[in-house]
Amino acid sequence: MLYKDSAKPVKERTEHLLGLMTPEEKVGQLVQLFGWQTYDHTEGKIELTEDFKRQIREGGIGALYGTLRADPWTGVTLESGLGARAGAEAVNTIQRYVLEHSRLGIPILIGEECSHGHMAIGATVFPVPLLIGSTWNVDLYREMSRAVALETRAQGGAVTYSPVLDVVRDPRWGRTEECFGEDPYLIGEFAVASVEGLQGDRLDSATSVGATLKHFVAYGSSEGGRNAGPAHIGKRELLEVDMYPFRKAVEAGAVSIMPAYNEIDGVPCTTNQELLEDILRGEWGFKGMVITDCGAIDMLASGHDTADGGEDAAVQALTAGIDMEMSGVMFGGYLLEALRSGRLDEQLVDQAAARVLELKFRLGLFEQPFADPDRAEQVIGSREHAELARSVAAEGIVLLKNNGILPLSKDKGTVAVIGPNADIGYNQLGDYTSPQPRDRVATVLTGIRAKLAAEPERVRYAPGCRIKDSSTEGFELALQAAAAADTIVLALGGSSARDFGEGSIDLRTGASKVTENGLSDMDCGEGIDRMSLHLSGVQLELLKELKTLGKPVVVVYINGRPIAEPWIDEQADAILEAWYPGQEGGHAIADILFGDVNPSGRLTLSLPADVGQLPVYYLSKRSRGVRYLERDSQPLYPFGFGLSYTEFSYSGLQVEPAVITADGTAEVTVEVENTGSRSGAEVVQLYISDLVSKVTRPAKELKGFRKIVLEPGEKQTVTFKLSAEHLSYIGQDYKPVVEPGIFRIGVGRNVTDTLDTDLAVMEG
């Protein structure tokens, strides 16, 4: 049959197949079920459920979500879940049944969560995107994305629901950890790298998966930092800031996009035709598939209250440009009814089904729907990928403060490793993480012990307290351990670990204990938004007790959102911001603590001194205001900030030519020298200010960055090319414009520390 002929063009194959399909089969392609509910796994065998078999026989299912996902939400555990080979074999069982028992043999689209690694048992757990952004190394992230694609496709996953391209505006939001940061340009660079890494050179390759951009759009601008809250944002800012990373990813070839839960100016993104059709498909030329977030269509009828019941919600979504529903509750239940009653035009169903089918053809699923169990065993969780995870973590950890205590000596001195995040593996992995064997995650304690393995007596440990619990019973043991040490490494912060059945920690001995009523440490992650940015529980109190010993204290933050504790910034001898550094995070932290790695992470969020300063992101207008009664409005640590164990100097900033036309180009050059005694990496950052404009502009905007490595005494000339895209903004008519005038060009180590010169733009 023509649609099975791989030599034919995708469009021709799609049209032929669509012409053979019944309304039931077309609607079936728009439905995505929860994959883990389609089979039973008992005694090492996979048995498909009778309900799933029935649905396949009666018209089919377009896709499955999270077939290999394991976490407390799915109820899939280490014991009941599927390892590398078993997962691939389970996908093959599903695909084989679909091909053999559906009328037309249309393969299932397997979609998986892969924000920082495939969310399946045994897969490599990389650092969260907030740390990835802090590397400022898009090449490294592209390499990581290739590894994630390889692990996912080896098990049969063909599409991933990543990258997250939301621009963080209020870090109280629990999903801050899933984002690259607060700046649209930086996010756009990582967006392109993600698409290139995940999708590779060929989408139908055995090492590629389709990228789904989410959450479109303004999800990170929610009211009060509350998840899925309304976004109060003007059209100009929407186009310039929140939409920018999505547009760059679409231009890079992303094949799928997911609208956000939130509303913008009263219109839910799920039914926003201007977003999905006029801008995304019309202006940007997006040709891929649009899939909802889980339960988003249901929210229209019970949440947003813009639909009168399920059928109305389903019809509204499809009409606005939705092609597939994650969870399938509404599309599967109501679209056929709407077709039969004449409320829904079948042409809209055809259009959506065609987009789903085209994606399946492009992914090569009709030619190769099956996973490779042997390859899955070889690549999933490989040593090579673990080493890559360690490298990513090491490049993204940010040194915020150092009074000279770091790096620590590997040859002498004892270290007390204290704190609730010193030896709890799940606390450093972040949300959207599968269950892990304890020995799979290198904690801070693990990393330091490995570094000093020849002299284990030099390391002492006590947890001190939990993340959220108010108990101080562990303080005594912590103080004893610290009193016997020369240096205290205190691992504080937060946790996005859901209840994995790990139970609790004995604060008096530091040992793990499994109980029926384990305490949750979770204070971050999806749906966990906060009113405060202070440390939870008695963590600050623990540090104050330890400081009475007069010992040097190195604070290591492991967390998914900024922490605002000015006392710690004043009193700690050194501070590392490690975010959630993934399975190799403890080794990466130890590499930095002991100087085997020179820290090169730089902040992609402005860190406030107090929650009352929010919003504190650097892309502020000049009219924002200067200060509050209590203090100024500036962040404690600015965007782009990060220290090193060496020093870098900037000189010779030049712009050539110094005068250009609006469609011209210019080169910015600067000399950067390592003036210290250690090899190190510097992030050279380019900022632009439009000094006079018809529409108010941010005081500074990031428009370029380079991460370079210099040996002591080495100099390098760094060059940036400026074009109309860098100098333009969305004008009064909501179209890009480059206005004649003076632009200030700043190059330096962070947004507040730059060399500056001017560029004049003349009429063309």
UniProtKB/TrEMBL annotation:
<dbReference type="InterPro" id="IPR026891">
    <property type="entry name" value="Fn3-like"/>
</dbReference>
<dbReference type="Pfam" id="PF14310">
    <property type="entry name" value="Fn3-like"/>
</dbReference>
<dbReference type="InterPro" id="IPR051915">
    <property type="entry name" value="Cellulose_Degrad_GH3"/>
</dbReference>
<keyword id="KW-0378">Hydrolase</keyword>
<dbReference type="Pfam" id="PF00933">
    <property type="entry name" value="Glyco_hydro_3"/>
</dbReference>
<dbReference type="InterPro" id="IPR013783">
    <property type="entry name" value="Ig-like_fold"/>
</dbReference>
<dbReference type="InterPro" id="IPR017853">
    <property type="entry name" value="GH"/>
</dbReference>
<dbReference type="Pfam" id="PF01915">
    <property type="entry name" value="Glyco_hydro_3_C"/>
</dbReference>
<protein>
    <submittedName>
        <fullName>Glycoside hydrolase family 3 C-terminal domain-containing protein</fullName>
    </submittedName>
</protein>
<dbReference type="InterPro" id="IPR002772">
    <property type="entry name" value="Glyco_hydro_3_C"/>
</dbReference>
<dbReference type="GO" id="GO:0016787">
    <property type="term" value="F:hydrolase activity"/>
</dbReference>
<dbReference type="InterPro" id="IPR036962">
    <property type="entry name" value="Glyco_hydro_3_N_sf"/>
</dbReference>
<dbReference type="InterPro" id="IPR036881">
    <property type="entry name" value="Glyco_hydro_3_C_sf"/>
</dbReference>
<dbReference type="InterPro" id="IPR001764">
    <property type="entry name" value="Glyco_hydro_3_N"/>
</dbReference>
<feature type="domain" description="Fibronectin type III-like">
    <location>
        <begin position="682"/>
        <end position="751"/>
    </location>
</feature>
